[in-house]
Amino acid sequence: MTSGAHTEVTVSPSGAGGPEKALLRFLTCGSVDDGKSTLIGRLLYDTQLVLEDQLTVLERDSRKHGTTGEELDLALLVDGLQAEREQGITIDVAYRYFSTQRRAFIVADTPGHEQYTRNMATGASNCQAAVILIDARKGVLTQTRRHSYICSLLGIKHVVLAVNKIDLVDFSGERFHHIVADYLGFAKALEFSSITPIPLSARYGDNVIRRSEHMRWYEGPTLIEHLESLDVEEEIEEKPFRFPVQWVNRPDLDFRGFSGTVASGRVRPGDRVVVAGSGRESTVSRIVTADGDLAEACAGDAVTLTLADEVDVARGDVLAQADSRPEVVDQFAAQVLWMIEEPMLPGRSYLMRIGTRFVPARITSLKHKTDVNTLEHIAAKTLQLNEIGFCNLGTATPVAFDPYAENRETGAFVLIDRFTHATAGAGMISFGLRRATNIHRQALLVDKTARARLNGHRPAILWFTGLSGSGKSTIANIVERELHALGAHTYMLDGDNVRHGLNRDLGFTDADRVENIRRVGEVARLFVDAGAIVLCSFISPFRAERRMVRELVDAGEFVEVFVDTPIEECKRRDPKGLYARALEGKIKNFTGIDSPYEPPESPEVVLETRDGPEQAARRVLDALREQHIITY
Predict the structure, then answer these.
(1) Could you confirm whether 540 is annotated as catalytic?
(2) Residue 623 in contact with residue 560, Cβ under 8 Å?
(3) How far apart are CA 25 and CA 86, in angstroms?
(4) Same domain for 90 and 129?
(5) 320: closest CA among 335, 337, 305?
(6) For the chain, what is the domain count?
(7) What strand order describes the sheet that includes 460-465?
(8) What's the CA gap between 558 and 17, in Å, rounded?
(9) Residue 521 and residue 414 in one domain
(10) pLDDT > 90: what percent of the chain?
(11) Are residues 279 and 383 in the same domain?
(12) Is residue 365 domain-resident?
């Protein structure tokens, strides 16, 4: 049993003299109003890190925004955003530093509100331990389970179960033990290395730094005693050497180095390293810093490495220990936490950042999502905001990684929305998928250029997009007729026609629409490779998928034709009676009625309602001549 003596606290800013203290990074998390900010405020206040002018501001703000009557509202020491103070919730992730004689701490106060779960995941990503708060009156809530599960996914092994506001249940040991039993029953599947329950009152300081006089039934440590003694050494320096290259440093013709931060392991001059992607080996010649060369660099050191051989290395490449290489594949399985309002759609192209590399990536399939209450696996086709799923992903080119369970630095990635540039998801790689390791591209003796030369024109995709009833197929048919008469090699892919064969298994959900265009795009690329002009007439409501098809072919080989017919005119025409049925509720997910259409932002050709079909077709042909796709 730990002594109940008061823990002496000293202020020791980072970089101060004296022996270096071990650093513990931990986060506080839990549901709204569980007292996370108050707990951190208590730690700062009791460790005498609140200066006089800050105390004056705190007294003023406590009267204006506080929730503790005449007492200081210690939560306001952390809730710095005006919106947070007014709403009484934490929105952003706040980081605070404090120190005792035994240890230094960096604590992240993360949001409890479900809307800001993504912020909580950001705070947890670089922490070694978690303090999960539970309101003693409310017990284990959904957000408690969600945060615990995210902590487990992110590799946090040590948890403090802080049953807060114990004063509001009369310091009841029975209530405390009931909550602990409930939580342990849920958390046994999360594989934490340690779970330490502590009853406390952040508002009054019971069992935070000083042992409570109100809970003599509790014989465990105070929160600070436990955090001081927690062993969280990850030995990241003992893991295999990994060095994501951030910058190729070439100040003059006589120096070529590779700059970045050592992600794991250590490296010395003379060590054999390998470029993970290409497999090319070399030897480290120097470890260069602004203060001179080093004899050794360890995890966390920002350095520039020079190599003995001229090997091809670029930003995003990973230098690795030659006899312990990371996996390099273009398909892998991962846990993904979805972080934006727009749902995750399998097949849609996102931008993945892994290490220092950016690469186009798609979630090829969602195997299941996880119910955070029961940890059960649930069948699903998409992920919504704050949902967590186990997915298969594919990247445009192979990437180097270690499973997240083995190396948090090289096994994590984020997915970025390619239009809004928002962080769409955070992922933790589980394992590589080696399904296609025996498949290689066959070198062909006749290539696209040779086929195009024989055809007498450049290959291209003419992509007609617009609402149902806009006239896309009518115009595309006329364009193909005219191209055929001119001797061009063409083929027409129409939205309705491909759903009778290639895409007959797809419906009209957003996920199915994405897959519909992905398949058509791949087929269209084959026609371009054959040297033909392929005309594609599809509503294709989402910009992301039209951009995806554009990126499948070379520059100048994708011509986007926007048939800009207003929806009222489309409803008036309604050649197939679809709008009438959709307005009656007989057709669901109909574009323009209950499913969105995203107009092109920079199409090569815009056709308006006043253009008759024949005139519109002539404008398309003129555009093909202007872009030198046809010359006759």
Answers:
(1) yes
(2) no
(3) 28
(4) yes
(5) 305
(6) 4
(7) 490-494, 533-537, 460-465, 558-564, 605-608
(8) 63
(9) no
(10) 58
(11) no
(12) yes
Q: How far apart are CA 487 and CA 262, in angstroms?
A: 60
492 contacts 477 by C-beta, under 8 angstroms: yes
pLDDT at residue 440 in the model: 55
Instruction: For residue 598, give the nearest of 447, 485, 465 by alpha carbon.
Output: 465
pLDDT in tens, 502-535: 999 988 888 888 999 999 999 999 999 999 999 9
Determine the structural domain holding residue 194 and report its residue range. Answer: 23-229
Closest by CA to 332, choosing from 432, 427, 399, 406, is: 432
Comparing CA positions, the residue from 36, 114, 30 lying closest to residue 388 is 114
CB atoms within 10 A of CB 539: 23
Alpha-carbon distance 59 to 76, whole Å?
10
**At 371, which CATH number?**
2.40.30.10
Give the residue ranges of DSSP H helices in 66-106. Answer: 82-87
189, 286, 408, 475, 608 from 615: Cα distances, Å: 67, 68, 59, 9, 11
Asked which of 303, 321, 339 is the last residue of a domain, the reply is: 321
Is 12 within the bounds of a domain? no
What tens digit of pLDDT does each residue of 573-600 get? Answer: 998 899 999 998 888 889 989 888 999 9
203 in Cβ contact with 35 (< 8 Å): yes
Distance CA 389, CA 335 (A): 6
How distant is the alpha carbon of residue 67 from its chain centre? 36
Whether residue 225 is found in the same domain as residue 283: no
Weakest mean pLDDT among 25-34, 52-61, 228-237, 385-394:
52-61
Which of 37, 324, 540, 602 is the catalytic position? 540
CA distance 6 to 185: 33
The residue-averaged pLDDT of 286-308 equals 94
Clarify whether residues 114 and 223 are in a common domain: yes
Residues 462 and 548 reside in one and the same domain: yes
Last residue of a domain, one of 321, 353, 373: 321
Regarding whether 66 and 213 lie in a shared domain, the answer is yes
Per-residue pLDDT tens for 464-505? 999 999 999 999 999 999 999 999 999 999 988 999 999 999
Q: For residues 350 and 361, is the Cβ–Cβ distance under 8 A?
A: yes
Q: Clarify whether residues 288 and 399 are in a common domain.
A: no
Q: Is 7 among the domain residues?
A: no
pLDDT tens digits along 24-60: 989 888 887 788 878 888 887 777 655 455 556 555 6
- Could you count the other beta carbons within 10 Å of the beta carbon of residue 445? 5
Q: Say whether pTM exceeds 0.85.
A: no
Domain presence at residue 440: no
Cα(131)–Cα(454) distance, integer angstroms: 69
- For residue 154, give the CATH number of its domain: 3.40.50.300
